[in-house]
Predict the structure.
Amino acid sequence: MKQVHLFLLLLFVAAGAGACVSNKQYNSLKSDYNRLLNDRTTLNDRVNALSTENNGLKRRLQELEKVATDFQTLTAEYESLQQQFGELQALMESYRRDRDREMGSLSVQLQRDRETLQNKEDELAERSRQLEQMQRELAERSRELEQMQREMEQHHKRLTELEAILNKKDSVVNTLRHRVSDALLGFEGKGLTVHVKNGKVYVSMEDKLLFKSGSYSIEPNGTEAIRKLSNVLAQNPDINVVIEGHTDDVAYRSSGELKDNWDLSVKRATTVVRALLSNTAIHPVRITAAGRSEYVPLDTDNTAEARQKNRRTEIILTPKLDELLEVLEY
């Protein structure tokens, strides 16, 4: 079960990385998830401790029940002594004249017996008070244990819901990947790749498919690939889309409104966005454009091949996380 939870945690982290929410929201989600796991471990420890304490209280209760039995025995002894005292008084009255000297001794013994009985009565009263206190404590511990069990059941339910949502998300991602791959089958290996990473589908298009060097006008083959991809997105309205433009580390030579690689990467991303939105079935609220310039390279080598890999546009497809957010906010 721990391995399952670890796997779920990895999936959850993957699902949060790069999603359409902010880093702050993602960190909050991750913190809530870790807190749920820590809460569950803490509650298990508290339940075990309370169970141990409960067993101890039961043993103490048995001891006090024995004390109660001793109390009954002492009560019987007390009644017997009271009877003996009455008999002694009768004897003293009958033989008072002959037993004057013995009366002093008997009076002393009687006082000792009374003191012993009083001490035993005081001891039994204290034991009774302790028994009542322990019974109250036992009842309080039982209520706390029941509350902890209810909380554990609630947390387990939330973890089960999270697991189901994450499994559903993985299924949606895999299905989406197959649909995108099928739609773009003719372009794969020709400057276009489709793969799954961090719980999202990445459609990566090299510049040789989309743009000429230094340009942000889409080439005809790139336009056709984007058109086919837009059809898939139109049929899957629960998918959010991030368009990321990436350049190599060669400085861009300004020849107009663009100043550097930042401008070029952003302009290419927004150009792809407009191409996707030519399909009116895609709502603009689903799409985010981002320019990453040269700062997220695939290959850091200082070679022409590495720079060619880094010049790319990535279309990142992410299932919406509304259900996951609702569970975490519950």
About this structure: The domain at 184-329 is CATH 3.30.1330.60 (60s Ribosomal Protein L30; Chain: A;). The radius of gyration is 41 Å.
